[in-house]
Amino acid sequence: MEKKLKAVILAAGLGSRLKPITNDKPKALVKVCGKPILEYQIESYLKAGLKEKDITIVVGYKGSKIKEFCNKKFPNVKIIENRNFAATNNMYSLFLYLKDAFFKQNLKEDLIINNGDCIYDPSIVSDIVKTDGNLIACDTYSFRIESMKVKCTGEGRLGEISKEISKENTFAVSIDLYRFSYNAVQELWKIVKGYIKKGECNKWTEVAINDLMKIVDVKPFDIGKRKWAEIDDLEDLLYAEKVFSKFDYKRKKVFVLDLDGTLYLGNKVFYKTIEFINKNWNNFKFYFMTNNTSRSRKSYLYKLRSLGLKYVNIDNLLTPFYPLVEYLKQKNFNTVYCLCTQDFTQELQAEGINCIAEPKSVDNIQAVIVGFDIELTYEKLKQASLLLQNRNIEFLLTHLDKTCPLENGFIPDAGSIAGVLEEVTGRKPNKVFGKPSKEILVPVLKKYKPDEIVIVGDRLYTDKVLADNANIDFILVLSGETRREDVEKENTFPVLILKSLEEVDEI
Q1: For residue 119, which of 28, 211, 37 has the smallest C-alpha distance?
Q2: In angstroms, rounded to a whole number, what is the distance separating the alpha carbons of residues 2 and 111?
Q3: Which end of the chain is more exposed for a tag (fewer CB within 10 A), N or C?
Q4: CATH number of the domain at 323-432, please?
Q5: For residue 425, how many other CB atoms are within 10 A of its CB?
Q6: Total H helices, total E strands in the chain
Q7: Residue 354 near residue 328 (C-beta atoms within 8 A)
Q8: Buried b (16+ CB within 10 A) or exposed e, 52-72
């Protein structure tokens, strides 16, 4: 049986506080955990029993993007355009909907109203669809300065809704989800129409709802401790992604942590992340992974212990060194030329690899190895360029990273050095060993299944791609290179996006 109910989503706003994410899309299409806000809303209504034809969206800023989205996923959802979105507020969008509903659709049903920047536990929408009456969905467990607050008269009904209600006088926070009977909607239409006729087009819908409370009984609909989020700015977005993530870290056995940008950034150390690791050392197996080949593993071990990771040992370290040495031994390569630091070169030599410092001839050199050489000289580039013009000599790259993040910017990494050699010689590396190649994870994958592991890192094109390649969950931390706006263009999202790893305790 079809519900005698309509729903309108007010989604015309500029979303300016979410720029640059909203530079090319409306806020309603910003993704939370990989899915647009609007998709959450429409799916909740459909799951609650409404049909697509019962749902209307009032669009404005970048409205064509919402039309395109709905045409592909929800073709029977109705679209109304607010061409005055830049100079009006959501009351004017509601006016356009009610005008259309009363004069074109001959509205006879109850109405649910919600803003296009909120996500709700689907059971909240389902319950408000089932519950008759004039209702404001409320959260009595939290107080949010930016949200609309409601005041109770003490008679089981609400008497006021406003952002200005003090905490002391607040009964609950509105979650911007409203249900009104047909008779109440008729009164709401008169109120809204009155404001618009006076030229007061830049008001919130809640101003009209506040007036409506003086005419009809409006009751609170308590959502209990169920999940919801209103997304106005980046902080709200990150909160929503924690709240609605399906990731359960307690089901994992292994954390594989990137170093640069995750545990530290240049000389800046993320001590709360260190605390999280130490606190959970006996609960999980921790591996520390880096593409950075400017140091030997022993140097990294010393650094990690100096940061306070007192239990770490060499077996906890994952770098391109292990798969590189395995490859050299497999190919019987024992004489190479390195664009690497002395520290890294000495570690290779300890494995029986003869690293030639000044090649007199190409006859005995089997490979040129390019790493993150912070001791790079023009002479090294010259020698490597000349050697690689011999196609019998392999071009081996420790990792693809083009930049290394520091606390005050970025510097060239191994990928950039390799790029110079590619330009000169016309050759691309025969093999790359670091992230995103799965080979860097071999010591872990020998002991654990992919679904028992989570990778934590700050880069999409290495850390996330590695996780995708290995079918492992990925947590993105925004403490290094990647900004939240970069993620928006990804086809698949990380299972979790955090400012830093210690926030995982909040999940």
Answers
A1: 37
A2: 14
A3: N
A4: 3.40.50.1000
A5: 18
A6: 16, 28
A7: no
A8: eebbbbbbbbbbebbeebbee
Task: Give which of 472, 353, 505 is closest to 369, Cα–Cα.
Answer: 353
Please confirm whether the linkage preceding 20 is cis (ω < 30° from 0): yes
Residue whose structure tokens are 């049986």: 1
CA 305 to chain centre: 31
- CA Rg value for the chain: 29
What are the tens digits of pLDDT across the range 337-394?
Answer: 999 999 999 999 999 999 988 777 667 899 999 999 999 999 999 999 999 999 999 9
Nearest partner of 384 among 408, 349, 419, judged by Cα = 419
Q: Using one digit for the tens of pLDDT, what is the confidence trace for 435-463?
A: 898 999 999 999 999 999 999 999 898 89
Q: Is the pLDDT of residue 27 over 90?
A: yes
pLDDT in tens, 61-72: 999 999 999 999
Structure tokens at 481: 């290179």
- CA–CA dist 134, 349 (Å, integer): 77
pLDDT greater than 70 at residue 2: no
What are the structure tokens assigned to 125, written together?
């929408």
Torsion of CA 97, 103, 105, 110, to 10 degrees: 60
Neighbour tally for 123: CB within 10 Å: 15
Q: Give the Cα separation of 316 and 320 in Å (integer).
A: 14
Q: Cα separation of 170 and 183, whole Å?
A: 27
**Fold identical between 5-244 and 323-432?**
no
DSSP, collapsed to helix, strand or coil, labels residue 220 as strand
CATH topology classification for 249-319+440-506: Rossmann fold (3.40.50)
What is the value of pTM for the model shown?
Answer: 0.87
